[in-house]
TrEMBL record:
Protein name as annotated: Integrase catalytic domain-containing protein
Bias type Pro residues, positions: 573-584, 607-620
Organism, as annotated: Mikania micrantha
Lineage, highest ranks first: Eukaryota, Viridiplantae, Streptophyta, Embryophyta, Tracheophyta
Stored SUPFAM superfamilies: Ribonuclease H-like
Extent of Low complexity compositional bias: 585-606
Keywords: Hydrolase, Protease
Superkingdom of origin organism: Eukaryota
Domain Integrase catalytic: 278-441
GO biological process: DNA integration; proteolysis
Region (Disordered): 521-649
Length: 649
């Protein structure tokens, strides 16, 4: 579309403008041919008839020695130059212009030579060549307006702005009024520029460059004011929002922005980076933490403590009755794993709990570094905290699927650890902690469904040869210290440890029968199968027969739904009016490797067992005398290389 720009009005033009209604006439090509150098005005014609029939227009042509010429076929742009030199440097806004044009090369960038045939044709017929094409911009109160494809015409006196292209390129609108015009942001409606009407031509007067918010104080105060108005958003959100509104505050540094109200009321913990500890072998760094308290389990525990080897991510879990039991348990655990793996425990990482603070003298004596977390910062002990979550979620899932009461949580959590240690993990390149620690993959053929129906072999404990040789039990996990399965009798509340067990994996007795009836209370005494009177107990430690059965042993368990009992035995309780069964002959079995969940009684040591060359030497604990503290816990031992893999065919 050719451009026609208004100029100063002559007498003839003024006479034309005296008519009531006039419209702007746009021609695609020049309509004048004259030897004179006058600047033709806007072409006006009274509404209702064509230009060729307008007598006033004909008189105007005659007085100025002008004549109509046929349209040219060359693409041109009609321009009429203004007679206002004082405004010549101001950009002129033209709603009919199809291109931006300027003669100021210094204001342009990304220039390239113009190779097209187009040219700028003035109203007097003079054609002005286009030398280059490039980009330019107009500063505004908030953001510059981009001018694309600007034509560089060296002989042009004015800067021409195409309103249509300006609006499309910058997503703005232009509103014209009799004495001024506005350029506004289309999305927000924010006013970006105000122009003026001078002699019926709309100019954009030069604006002062933005003060870059002139002073830093003014900038900060303005940004802080918006921060208060918008409800104290973060500085990143605030800047993004203001930029969308056409307000540029990017020059304000985030580090300098501060709001007391936000600092006082939005204080939160900082994110934690990756663990900086580097280890190359087991036991260089062990994480530990105590979990609880919870409902007392059916075997008398209210807490558990875990030890996690940072090198292999292998977990040892030990149920305990009190937090203070950690101070007795840790020295035994240290001796156990150091002898088995033939390496020293170097560092211990824990929280600042009293159970670990009490270990400081022992750790210092044995040259063990002790790292602790700051107060109320459990995230720094993330290795142990994440294991808590995994153990609890897995254990509760096992209980829920088997419909077992929560009183069996200690068995479920120990089973969960047994399984977690054998599951591949991404952090170990999809190796299991067991394989990482023992350098051999675990076997999975002996795994059974927790809480399912099972039938342990109990012939040594039958009342006679014609009594049943088994009973319905519930599978409660793996007794790695005895290389056997744990089978719970819900009627007698006894816990059998047996190697010979038949499993029905798809049947869960608690699902079918619900909770068993409450049995008669079991006397809280040490039970023996001999005719001699039982010895007086000297402590609350667990008792165990010195000669366990070659295939199975049993431990009476209290009713999980009634009063907590502490009696444990390796033989069934004699029934009234029936002689007790004779104990089976003791048979030597290989001593298992350290286990994460098994137990060793703190009683008289078992008879000597010849060592198995493929297994670590047997571990015996000295009996605790009355002068030494007697914790109410069983001391855990680590398990063999694959629990049952080394003992079961």
């Amino acid at each position: 579309m050719p451009l026609i720009i208004g100029s100063s009005l002559s007498n003839a033009e003024s006479e034309i403008l005296q008519s009531d209604f006039y419209i702007i006439i746009w021609y695609p090509e020049p309509i004048f041919s004259s030897e004179t150098t006058i600047d033709p005005p806007f072409l006006f014609t009274p509404a209702g008839h064509e230009t060729k029939d307008c007598r006033k227009f004909a008189r105007f042509l005659q007085q100025n020695n002008l004549a109509l010429t046929p349209a040219s076929t060359n693409p041109t742009v009609n321009v009429s130059m203004t007679n206002s030199p004082q405004h010549a440097s101001w950009p002129m806004f033209d709603s009919g212009a199809s291109n931006h044009a300027t003669s100021d090369q210094a204001s342009m960038h990304n220039l390239s030579e113009y190779g097209g045939p187009d040219e700028i044709v003035l109203g007097n017929g003079i054609a002005l060549p286009i030398s280059h094409i490039g980009q330019a911009s107009i500063p505004t109160s908030s953001r510059p307006l981009t001018l694309s494809n600007v034509l560089l015409v060296p002989r042009l006196r004015n800067h021409l702005i195409s309103v249509a292209k300006l609006c499309k390129t910058n997503n703005v609108s232009v509103e014209f009024f009799p004495f001024h015009f506005f350029v506004k942001d289309l999305r927000t409606g924010a006013r970006l520029m105000r122009g003026v009407n001078i002699n019926d031509v709309y100019y954009a007067p030069p604006t002062q460059p933005r003060l870059q918010l002139n002073s830093s104080t003014k900038t900060f105060n303005s940004l802080l004011s918006w921060h208060h108005k918008l409800g104290h958003p973060s500085i990143k959100v605030l800047k993004r929002l203001l930029n969308n509104l056409g307000l540029d505050y990017n020059n304000v540094s985030n580090n300098l922005f501060h709001c007391d109200a936000c600092s006082l009321n939005k204080s939160h913990k900082l994110p934690f980076g990756e663990n900086s500890f580097k280890v190359s072998k087991p036991l260089e760094l062990v994480y530990s933490d105590v979990w609880g308290p919870v409902k007392i389990s059916n075997d008398g525990y209210q807490y558990y403590v875990i030890f996690v080897d940072f090198f292999s991510k292998y977990i040892w879990l030990y149920p305990i009755k009190r937090k203070s039991d950690v101070s007795t348990l840790f020295p035994i655990f240290k001796t156990l794993v150091e002898k088995f793996f033939k390496t020293s425990l170097v560092s211990l990482f824990s929280d600042n709990g009293g159970e670990y603070i009490g270990l400081i003298p022992y750790l210092q004596q044995h040259g063990i570094s002790h790292f602790t977390t700051p107060p109320h910062t459990p995230e720094q002990n993330g290795v142990a905290e994440r294991r808590h979550r995994h153990i609890v979620e897995t254990g509760l899932s096992l209980l829920h699927h088997a419909h077992l009461p929560l009183a069996f949580w200690s068995h479920a959590f120990q089973t969960a650890v047994h399984l977690i240690n054998r599951l591949p993990t991404k952090i170990l390149d999809f190796k299991s902690p067991f394989e990482k620690l023992y350098n051999t993959p675990p076997t999975y053929t002996k795994l059974k469904s927790f809480g399912c129906l099972c039938f342990p072999w109990l012939r040594p404990y039958a009342k006679s040869k014609i009594h049943p040789r088994s009973t319905k039990c519930i599978f409660l996990g793996y007794s790695s210290s005895k290389s056997a399965y744990k089978c719970y009798d819900p009627v007698t509340h006894r816990l059998y440890h047996s190697r010979h067990v038949e499993f029905i994996d798809h049947i869960f007795p608690f699902t079918i029968n619900g909770l068993p009836p409450d049995p008669l209370p079991i006397p809280n005494t040490f039970l023996h199968t001999s005719t001699q009177p039982p010895p007086e107990p000297t402590s609350s430690l667990t008792a165990q027969h010195p000669h366990p059965s070659p295939a199975s042993s049993i431990t009476p368990q209290p009713n999980p739904c009634t009063t907590q009992l502490t009696t444990h035995s390796s033989h069934p309780i004699p029934q009234p009016n029936h002689p007790p069964p004779s104990p089976p002959t003791s048979v030597s079995q290989p001593t298992p490797a350290p286990s994460p969940t098994a137990t060793i009684p703190l009683s008289s040591p078992s008879p000597h067992v010849p060592p198995d060359p493929t297994q670590p030497p047997p571990i015996h604990s000295e009996p605790i005398t009355s002068s030494s503290p007697a914790p109410d816990l069983v001391v855990p031992v680590d398990n063999d290389h694959d629990n049952f893999g080394a003992y079961f065919p």
